[in-house]
Design goal:
- There is one protein chain.
- By secondary structure, the chain is an alpha/beta fold.
- The chain contains 10 helices and 7 strands.
- It is 48% helix and 14% strand.
- It has a 7-stranded parallel beta sheet with strand order 3-2-1-6-4-7-5.
- Helix 5 crosses helix 7 and helix 8 packs parallel to helix 10.
- The model has no long low-confidence stretch (mean pLDDT 88).
């Protein structure tokens, strides 16, 4: 089973959905389940709904923050039930699965699923390189959490089987880790403040727009090093912020 693609459930409130998600994962050959702030785990209800996938629940990693859950990952995709602005790159489940499988060849990748009531918060979506949206009937678009996990895991399974018959080689460099991207954003914010380009009045909006720009660009390790080297050189040439 694949441990390179993490299925990350953020703020799951119903233990039955955790168990059903574990079963969906095991059906499709995935075994890395991460729970961020679960309301109840372990719980008899999740074990019952797992129906033979209890080993995934035992091995599930419980994290207090998104940063801890995805820190070592390169590509991170988030799921959404709502249409988003043009600043987001939005994929269907098949497209997202193909990208996850390709990225996981050299570095762990993750797909985030939000809680049953409100989905992923904006600050959680901001950690994603792109979004997955599962098309559904316009009059009732909301999917159950475990159902959404099942659909995405199925597409990952299909993509993995397709990739297995493609000769390796010629793959693009994988994106930098989430931790490295956070360090880049912090470095950029610091330099922009020293240059008086960013200030308290525009910091939140500007920082969010720059995060989206870099998420669409998917910089790799070497590109992040180049960018941080450029920022370091600029920083040395600036006067200390007053």
């Amino acid at each position: 089973m694949s441990a390179a693609i993490h299925i990350v459930l953020v703020d799951p409130s119903h233990p039955g959905n955790i168990g059903a998600s574990a079963r969906a994962m095991k059906n499709m050959g995935l075994d890395s389940l991460v729970l961020v702030r679960p309301q109840s785990h372990p719980d008899p209800a999740d074990v019952a709904r797992a129906s033979g996938a209890g080993d995934l629940l035992v091995r599930a990693r419980v994290s207090a923050t998104i940063d801890d859950a995805i820190g070592n990952c390169g590509l991170v995709l988030g799921t959404t039930a709502r249409a988003r602005s043009a600043n987001w790159r939005v994929l269907d489940a098949r497209e997202g699965a193909a990208e996850l499988v390709a990225a996981a060849e050299s570095r762990p990748a993750a797909v985030l699923f939000g809680g049953e009531r409100n989905g992923l918060a904006n600050e959680e979506l901001a950690r994603c390189h792109a979004l997955i949206r599962i098309p559904a009937a316009a009059e009732y678009e909301s999917l159950n959490l475990a159902q959404a996990v099942q659909i995405v895991c199925y597409e990952i399974c299909v993509a993995e089987r397709a990739a297995a018959v493609v000769p390796p080689g010629g793959r693009a460099a994988e994106p930098a880790t989430a931790d490295d991207m956070q360090a880049l954003h912090a470095h950029l914010d610091r330099v922009l403040r020293k240059a008086s380009f960013m200030h308290d009045g525009n910091a939140a909006q500007l920082s969010a727009r720059l995060e989206r720009l870099f998420a669409r660009a998917l910089p790799d390790d070497g590109e992040v090093r180049i960018l941080r080297g450029m920022l370091a050189a600029i920083e040395r040439g600036l006067r200390p912020a007053e």
